[in-house]
Amino acid sequence: MKVIILAAGEGTRLRPHTLERPKCLVEADGRSLLDRQLDVLATEGIDPVILVGGYRAEMLHRDDIKLRINPLFSETNMVWSLFCAEDDFDGGMIVSYGDIVYSRKILRTLLKSEADIAVTIDLDWESYWRTRNENPLDDAETLKMSSDGKVLEIGQEPNSLEEIEGQYIGLMKFSAEGVAILKKVFHDAKKSGNLCGKPVKNAYMTDLLQATIDLGYAVHSAPVHGGWVEVDTCEDLFLTSTKSRLHSIESNLTE
């Protein structure tokens, strides 16, 4: 099972920490986000690791990582970055954002899913969001699920907490069949020039997932309860909750 880590963006909300390095190399409590994520992946023997870089990509070269480049990183978004690694899509794969760190328990939960497309959803998102934002609706996205755990709506701007049944964390898994579905949705969108109302180059991963759902394909949730960190802003970097969650993740790597 391979993993593709998306790390091409400039991380402007983390400046000045990203002025001289890509976002995934920003250090949180003494270690980079990338190193922390790699430690978790290693516990389950996830290999190979493929990193999609763009901004300051020269800093991402490592002997144990395959590096792919999004040359249009300054004018594109996550979906475009992901498909810069399309040649590596054979078989199943995990896709992860580069600005998150998650526990081994979360990774195991995702790996256990038998769905062709499984998306990690934090059901206890609200308490974490309240440590990061005065208003928990800030920077949150809608997430609606069916009674059997299928995702029905994802990635829209919420008007109330009732529209958020969980929070997408930027970690997902695709079987070989799921990869084939993903490729079809993407390439059809490229032909039409539209992905959930956006130009394909500007589309988010949640747009790609929603388009997949709208076409009738099943996108299943892999529900978790906390145990992860997102470092998107300078405020995130120094939050007590960030440090405590990172410490918990690191201390439980051998569980």
Task: Give a written overview of the molecule.
This protein has 255 residues and is α/β, with parallel strands linked by helices. It has one domain (2-250): Alpha-Beta Complex (Spore Coat Polysaccharide Biosynthesis Protein SpsA, Chain A). The protein contains eight helices and 13 strands. The protein has helices at residues 33-43, 78-83, 104-112, 125-132, 176-192, 205-214, 234-238, 240-251, and strands spanning 2-7, 27-28, 31-32, 49-53, 65-69, 93-97, 100-102, 117-122, 143-145, 151-154, 167-174, 220-224, 228-230. It has a seven-stranded mixed sheet. β2 and β3 form a beta hairpin. α5 packs across α6 (205-214).
- Provide the gyration radius in Å: 17 Å
Structural class: alpha/beta
CATH topology: Spore Coat Polysaccharide Biosynthesis Protein SpsA, Chain A
- The neighbouring-strand order within the major sheet is 5-4-1-6-11-8-12
**CATH classification, class level:** Alpha Beta
Number of helices: 8
Overall mean confidence score, pLDDT: 95
- Can you give the helix content as a percent range? 25-40%
Please report the distance between the alpha carbons of the first and last residues: 21 Å
What ranges have pLDDT less than 50 throughout 5 or more consecutive residues?
A: none
Q: What's the count of strands? A: 13
What summary fits the major beta sheet?
7 strands, mixed
CATH architecture: Alpha-Beta Complex
User: How many domains in all?
Assistant: 1
Principal-axis shape equals: globular
* CATH H level, superfamily name: Spore Coat Polysaccharide Biosynthesis Protein SpsA, Chain A
Question: Helix-strand pattern, N to C?
Answer: EEEHEEHEEHEHEEEHHEEHH
